[in-house]
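User: Hello! My lab partner asked me to get a predicted holo structure for this protein. The small molecule is adenosine-5'-triphosphate, SMILES included with the sequence. Please write out the structure tokens.
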Amino acid sequence: MKECMIKTKDLVKTFSSDGHDFNAVDHVNLEIYEEDFTVIMGRSGSGKSSLLYLMSGLDQMTSGDVFYGDLSLSSLNENKAARFRREEIGFVFQAVNLIPNLSLLDNITIAGFLTKRSRKDVEDEAHNLLSIMGLSNEKNRLPSMISGGQAQRAAIARSLINKPKVLFADEPTGSLNSSSTEVVLDTFSKINQELKKTIIMVTHDIKAAIRADRILFLKDGKVDGDIRLDCYHENDKINRENQVLEYLQAKGW
Ligand SMILES: Nc1ncnc2c1ncn2[C@@H]1O[C@H](COP(=O)(O)OP(=O)(O)OP(=O)(O)O)[C@@H](O)[C@H]1O
Ligand SMILES: [Mg+2]
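Assistant: Hello! Below are the structure tokens for the protein in complex with adenosine-5'-triphosphate.
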């Protein structure tokens, strides 16, 4: 039985639109388990990104709370919240945002130098991550000299440099072609299965969803579905795609 890592309690995010308020995240109570690869799906506007930003501390909740063990995110002041995001959370977005005039290696280490670790420790970890991502030969290149898939893998390495407890990703394959998508997804599977990292990924892509241990389906800011899949194996892709597609279609995806 996997341990609970993150727990949301009556989590709400309210936005105003045309003079009236609505809950983009509407009293969500859920648990995320350690070492799980959780995928969040749902139609556009269902609140996936909003939920991800609240769970990772990137955005402030309107009410309710998010707990990492005993730590309550709502109780952190701005300093502590910034430190929490820097040291405990990794985040990968659709837009990669590597710094254009820095090499891949420097893009990764710079995120590590923001903490109190030694330079050597950060550099060793960066080389290790570049190797895991299959980017050792590209480490001295500028971001403009690599493919979209390589850039996303560099961004994943950057997100892991501070050994976060959990890796969040918001449509990380959204702007990649299908071959880059598979390589990036292989990287996520490896991070989950070999590095034992907890992953929470928002995606519209069925090919990404089949990598998950668990799929949460959001509708109107609420959790409307929660299924657990067998452990992912590469030679089971087609069956799994059919299984997930059937589930999503039943949900009105
Ligand atoms: N800053 C904001 N101000 C006002 N409304 C917002 C804001 N951010 C999001 N919303 C609204 O909240 C709802 C949920 O948005 P969210 O971005 O979480 O959806 P999503 O499921 O990630 O959608 P998509 O699949 O298109 O990325 C939408 O109706 C959106 O328009
Ligand atoms: Mg979104």
